[in-house]
Amino acid sequence: MNEAKFDEQGSRIRWTESAARPDGDGGATVYVHGLGAMSAAYHAHIAADPALVGRLSLFVDLPGHGTSDRPADFGYTLEDHADALAAALDEAGVRGAELVGHSMGGAVAVVLAHRRPELVARMVLTEANLDPYPPGTSGGSGIGSWTEEAFVHGGGFARVLEHVRPMWASTMRLTDPLALHRSAVGLMRGTEPTMRRMLMESTADRTYLQGALSGELPGADELKDAGVRVLTVPGAAHCIMFDRPDALVSAIAARSE
């Protein structure tokens, strides 16, 4: 396991690596998980596909999630997560990475590409959050509708675990409740400019996957006009890597050389 400091207190963001073959091109594919998830649990089977063997793969756990540290005085905004991810890539000596980001992890990837464009050559995003949530709504299965105190200390975390899908609960229960709540609130708040605007203006190679069972992607034509490849995946909902792993593998394998 590898680690890098991401705040002034010395908190560590951690990741595991799957080594490239000796004849690999030396590039790196970096997998970034969603809210309440872990990278290896959601993406190791994707990276192991024969079509993707040959490049270094990094499975990064964002702050507060999985194996990474969970400082109580950290903001856990999308910008904070992106800066922590940048610290991991800097420590790993990675430049021009291919980021595979799911849901919140896709939003973090977009923010990183905006803040540190030299770190990101390509993004493959699976149902990434591109817009703040409309006023009066709550994201992350209602996590953001709780106050921080009620969620962390008043039973909110346990209530949410009871109601989310068992697969999601299996990794969410390993997430720090404070980090989970602040991450959900940060995701609802979004960024300025928005993640959508950052994605449209990015010079990186960009692919966006939308599960057909999730409905149409709002603003898809606008994204296409900006050069983003928008692919609808039949038979898939939000977790495309589980519903249609072949489609995600195909999208990652279709690299622009």
TrEMBL record:
One of its GO terms (molecular function) is hydrolase activity. It comes from the Bacteria. Residues 30-133 form the AB hydrolase-1 domain. InterPro entries: AB_hydrolase_1, AB_hydrolase_fold, Carboxylesterase_BioH. The keyword Heme does not apply. Keywords: Hydrolase. The keyword Acetylation does not apply. Gene3D superfamilies: alpha/beta hydrolase. PANTHER family: HYDROLASE ALPHA/BETA FOLD FAMILY, PEROXISOMAL MEMBRANE PROTEIN LPX1. This is Alpha/beta fold hydrolase.
